[in-house]
Design a protein that fits this description.
Layout: E1 11-18, E2 22-27, E3 33-36, E4 40-43, H1 49-61, H2 66-69, E5 72-80, E6 83-90, E7 96-101, H3 106-112, E8 125-128, E9 134-137, H4 140-145, E10 159-162, E11 168-173, E12 179-182, H5 189-195, E13 207-213, E14 226-232, E15 234-235, E16 244-245, E17 248-249, E18 260-263
Parallel strand pairs: 6-10, 11-18
Antiparallel strand pairs: 1-2, 1-5, 3-4, 6-7, 8-9, 8-10, 11-12, 13-14, 13-18, 15-17, 16-17
Length: about 260
């Protein structure tokens, strides 16, 4: 991409066509420069591709007058990108150090490491930089909707850490995708039902039942340790109304770790 930052060990090809026909292979040195025949040494480290194209055209114009006249064109491409070393740790199938392309992202690193284990979180993956900065990644938009805009580009020496999974609930019954779902910090009943794909065609849309293990501190004398909470659903045809899902309004109900959500036929 045009915003790719040039670094040591990148290999480029510079091509001039028109009044002159030349091609030069340029290798970025460890010191961050390239040597262009008839031009000399040019520092390119940490320049974006788009900026480097402009810089090279300006420098080449002093040696090739056809560039200013428009009779010589300049093209620059990358033939081989450098690699970076990152570390993948935590709840992954194969933790360790990995050599990845310098354009790699967190999902590339997770694929290389075999992905999270059954104990690994999909919502709170952390990227720890060498300068102390920390970035988090939620994989649910990618896994459920194919959205990759939140993926995090990696840098040399990054540590990708997959923690233990957080709070989880299970969705049973007449939904499109019954499964266990890990909760984000603010997720409620509506968020989980959306993640499950919404109601199946045969779903009873009058109510949803939450089966919950009652916390010991909330149990009264003689009470059971389980509770079934029936949530009434109101029909609606206004898809812009808050809580709308599949023809009904889902009330803002908070969830606890271990809840089971049942949608009857």
């Amino acid at each position: 991409p045009d915003d790719y930052l040039i670094g040591p060990d990148d290999r480029l090809v510079l091509i001039l066509t028109g009044d002159v026909e030349l091609a030069h292979e340029l290798v970025v040195t460890r010191e961050g420069f390239v040597i262009v025949p008839n031009v000399g040494r040019i520092s390119v480290a940490n320049l974006a591709m788009a900026d480097l194209r402009v810089l090279l055209q300006d420098r080449l114009a002093s040696s090739y007058s056809g560039i200013e006249r428009g009779t010589t064109s300049v093209a620059l491409t990358i033939t081989q990108i450098r690699t970076i070393q990152v570390y993948v740790t935590g709840e992954v199938a194969q933790a360790g150090a990995y050599q990845l392309a310098s354009v790699a992202t967190v999902t590339n690193a997770l694929y290389a490491a075999g992905g999270p284990t059954a104990l690994g979180s999909l919502r709170g993956i952390k990227v720890m930089r060498r300068d102390g900065d920390e970035v988090s990644l939620d994989l649910y938009p990618y896994l459920l909707d194919g959205v990759v805009s939140g993926d995090v580009p990696l840098e040399q020496g990054d540590v990708v850490f997959v923690p233990l999974k957080g709070r989880r609930v299970q969705v049973y019954g007449s939904v499109v995708r019954p499964a266990h779902y890990e909760l984000d910090v603010d997720d409620d009943l509506l968020d989980v039902l959306k993640a499950s794909g919404g109601f199946a065609p045969e779903a009873n849309r009058r109510r949803v039942t939450i089966h919950r293990v009652v916390r010991p501190s909330e149990r009264g004398p003689g009470s059971t340790d389980h509770a079934a909470i029936d949530i009434g659903l109101s029909p609606s045809t206004d898809s812009s109304e808050w809580g709308y899902l599949g023809g009904v309004i889902i009330p803002p109900i908070g969830l606890q770790d271990g809840d089971s959500i049942v949608v009857d036929k």
